[in-house]
Amino acid sequence: MYENLAIMAVFIFIYSAVAGAVEKRPMSGPIVFLVFGVVAGPHVLGIMQTSITADILRKFAELSLALVLFTDASTADMTTLRRSRGLPERMLLIGLPLTIVLGFLLGLVFFPGLPLLEVALIAVMLAPTDAALGKGIFANPKVPVRIREALNVESGLNDGICVPILYLFLALALSTEAHEAPMGLALELLAREIGIGLVVGLGATALGVLLLKVSFHRHWVQEFWLPVPVVALAFACYALAQSLEGSGFIACFVGGLLFDIMVKGGKSQVLEAAEGLGNTLALITWVIFGFAVVGEVVTSLSWSIVVYSLLSLTLIRILPVYLSLAGTGESVYGKLFMGWFGPRGLASIVFIIMVWQKNLPGSRIMAVTVACTVILSVIAHGLSANPMAKLFGRFKIE
Prior knowledge:
CATH architecture: Up-down Bundle
GO biological process, one term: proton transmembrane transport
CATH class: Mainly Alpha
Largest sheet: none
Pfam family, one: Na_H_Exchanger
Helix content: over 70%
Membrane topology: Multi-pass membrane protein
Radius of gyration: 21 Å
Number of strands: 0
Organism: Desulfoferula mesophila
Number of helices: 16
Strand content: under 5%
Number of domains: 1
Main location: membrane
Distance between the termini: 52 Å
């Protein structure tokens, strides 16, 4: 265990020291950590021998997503939405539902043996995007500000929006397998998961922010403690909701939205450390994913899974986004750019682990499809972020 910990720590230290140089090139942190996980794993060098189970991957991925949901929602202020010509609202309210519908329809073609609800689950699990996989575009001044802001807001909110949809389809699928009245059971499960998540997220965040405001007013908070409250609040929302059999992800998402509303100024100072920890946990998740999953996925691929995965990254994402942006005055390249940068990452990994644990008949096909799409996305979006961003400057595309 200590040898593996040492290898991981040394690698993270080296990467943190050279990250600025690496990410200026057609490369991204998730690619580097994913490749490291594969190379260090049992299928290549085998220098890390610990048996990494699905439970370990689940814990890292869930904690990472919980923190990311809270911090992303906390930074999605409404002024950004107004500045961006309504682009993120269109992508979320029109593009996201169309993506799920198109993913479902094409899933029926490529996975004819799967039950309808399990095809719907694949479509939902692959709908949310992960801005970290295209990080280069957010730091590139050649990409218009409105596009950077639109993609950042969309990515920050769409995984939270997909959570209740996933719960609904999952509850329907489980009740169908159990030969119970599907709608009644599904609505009961959905109400409990979402209801508890909402109450915990709103209640815990409201109490936490009020306490912080009193502490700031009385000058009780010391500067070196500023990074701690947000991390602790996000984990408290998640863990409390989960312990009460609610959705910790919904608790974190609505808690982050409420945090944004209640804390008007000085958010960046208290959110910075939380975002940094979330990014670190996410990168470690990529190592574990590469170590434990990639080798298994490669041996289980079929032509239908690979083609569907490629379509998920292209047609299923790009067409709905393009249609949702009609009438905005956005350039053709701008629409295609925003459609292409819909990378699949952390949320999709967490979603498939949640579904896998329910032992549905098509669990393996769903898992391999989602994992294949994520692997292709890490590579394709990571490598294309900087080159495609440069095209804005080269051709003066506004």
